[in-house]
Design brief:
By secondary structure, this protein is α+β, with helices and mostly antiparallel strands. The chain is built from 15 helices and twelve strands. Strand 11 and strand 12 form a beta hairpin. The chain is globular. The structure holds 3-hydroxy-3-methylglutaryl-coenzyme A and NADPH dihydro-nicotinamide-adenine-dinucleotide phosphate (NDP). The site of NADPH dihydro-nicotinamide-adenine-dinucleotide phosphate (NDP) has 22 residues, from helix 7. Keywords: NADP, Oxidoreductase.
Length: about 425
């Protein structure tokens, strides 16, 4: 356990004083000390002085800071901890995820882990969740401006040519070993054109990878067509913002999970009937979301996705895309409950980003997906399937609780 305390050597004291006097900026502390731990300690003590607070906890952590300060977190001063719960076993019959899984959930919302645990037990007792990935394409969309419509049209026609796509595919080899350009779609608004590039990023979630790859493609476009690039990201991607384009066309992995739950299991485990659940799903998730103008038609996909993403070192901002989830519930011909969740945009990786940090790596290891897959891409697909099955568990339990009239009771008992 790292506890870099308040003891400073003479050199560190001198630098702290210079930070406090404004001679050295917080950002540049690392340039004046021998190791990154000293820099973290000096910054934290400086912030204590400047803000008039005394930290009691953030200095205690087990993170290997060398990699974190280089790759993840600028101006590091410590770490916050999020409690980790586990749900499961959750039985999954996916193409990549097969068998029983224990789901790591980093959350402070009482009743959430219990809910996913209940959903997992219902799914596992019903023979498991079937899961399939229907699309795999991480997007980045630069924006270009043209002097007039004629030139805009010429640009879009040029982009459509097979030979242009081939050149772009070749060009990105300058920037990535694993990334592959799959396709490009053009969107026009007046004299502005957006190119929405789709990439296979293998085991990386891929946003850094595709940003760098798109940058070299933009160089090619400038050289070969002479277009005026306005921004490397023009929001048609659409990264970390709710957008119909990502919900409809998909972004990252598009994943669907299904389960059929026997009527008596619904009654004994979820304390309601399949018919009551279908009614709640229809009037709440479908009609209620439509009336609200929502892009998501689910109960709390974001809850499950946030807890898993934080546990597994994913970028939590991509919870936005996770919330496009659509939940369906029907009664099959035997009177059992048939439930599906469709997640159009799951942005997950098992290499890069926060996946290398020790505690997050432990969670990925728990799921058997840390690092590169045996065949690159297999681990991130397995993780995406596990995320979808976990969302299915969360939907079943919460809709069950609302159908049984247990939502408030559960949160009164477990959440306060
Ligand atoms: C809380 C339960 C699960 C109780 O559910 P229950 O059926 O009354 O509890 P039970 O004691 O009969 O236990 C049934 C199973 O639940 C699990 N379970 C039960 N308790 C625990 C526990 N302490 N720790 C771990 N697992 C637990 C466990 O799997 C257990 O099976 P067993 O192990 O006994 O064979 C249920 O009422 C429930 O799921 N409620 C919904 C809670 C929920 O999903 N909250 C999520 C947050 S809500 C929110 O943020 C979004 C919202 C609501 O605003 C969105 C919207 O608009 O809808
Ligand atoms: N830059 C941006 O605009 C944005 C960045 N982010 C951040 O980006 C980070 C995630 O980006 P991401 O690109 O996933 O991660 P990294 O930038 O960490 O890149 C992943 C690296 O892993 C290498 N790699 C090794 N093995 C594999 C494998 N099996 N499959 C794929 N790649 C492999 C790739 O090499 P190579 O490239 O040579 O193939 C790549 O360089 C997160 O920290 C996130 O917060 C989020 C949103 C936007």
């Amino acid at each position: 356990m790292m506890e870099s305390g308040r003891n400073l050597n003479l050199q560190e004291k001198d630098i702290l004083n210079k930070v406090l006097s404004g001679e050295i900026s917080i950002r540049k502390v690392a340039m004046f000390v021998e190791d990154w731990e000293s820099a973290i300690k000096i910054r934290r003590l400086a912030i204590e002085e400047l803000a008039g607070v005394e930290f009691e906890n953030i200095q205690n952590y087990s993170i290997d800071t060398e990699n974190v300060v280089k790759k993840n977190t600028e101006n590091m001063i410590g770490a916050v901890q999020v409690p980790l719960g586990v749900a499961g076993p959750l039985n999954i019959n996916g193409e990549y995820a097969q068998g029983d899984f224990y789901i790591p959930l980093a959350t402070t919302e009482g009743a959430l882990v219990a809910s996913i645990n209940r959903g997992s037990s219902v799914i596992t007792g019903s023979g498991g969740a079937n899961v399939r990935i229907f699309q795999n394409s991480m997007t980045r969309a630069p924006v270009f401006k043209f002097e007039n419509l004629e030139r805009t049209k010429k640009f879009v026609d040029w982009v459509k040519k097979k030979s242009t796509l081939e050149k772009m595919k070749e060009k990105i080899k300058e920037s990535t070993r694993y990334g592959e350009l799959l396709n490009v779609e053009s969107f026009v608004l007046g004299n502005t054109a957006y190119l929405r590039f789709g990439f296979d990023t293998k085991d990386a979630m891929g946003m850094n990878m595709v940003t760098l790859a798109t940058d070299v493609i933009v160089d090619l476009i400038v050289d070969e067509f002479g277009a005026d690039p306005i921004s490397l990201s023009g929001n048609m991607c659409s990264d970390k913002k709710p957008a119909a384009v990502s919900s409809i066309n998909g972004r990252g992995k598009t994943v669907v999970a299904e389960v059929t739950i026997p009527r008596d299991t619904v009654e004994s485990k979820l304390k309601c009937t399949p018919d009551e659940m279908v009614e709640v799903n229809y009037r709440k998730n479908l009609l209620g979301s439509a009336r609200a103008g929502s892009l998501g038609f689910n109960a709390h996909a974001a809850n499950v996705i946030a807890a898993m993403y934080i546990a597994c070192g994913q970028d939590p901002a991509h919870v936005v895309e996770g919330s496009y989830t659509i939940t369906t519930m029907d009664i099959d011909k035997y009177g059992n409950l048939y439930c599906t969740v469709t997640l159009p945009a799951v942005a997950v990786g098992t290499v890069g980003g926060g996946t290398g940090i020790g505690t997050q790596r432990d969670c990925l290891n728990l799921l058997g997906v840390s690092g590169s897959g045996e065949k690159p891409g297999e681990n991130s697909k397995k993780l995406a399937e596990i995320v979808a099955a976990s969302v299915l568990a969360g939907e079943l339990s919460l809709i069950g609780a609302q159908a049984a009239g247990h939502l408030a009771r559960a949160h009164a008992k477990l959440g306060r």
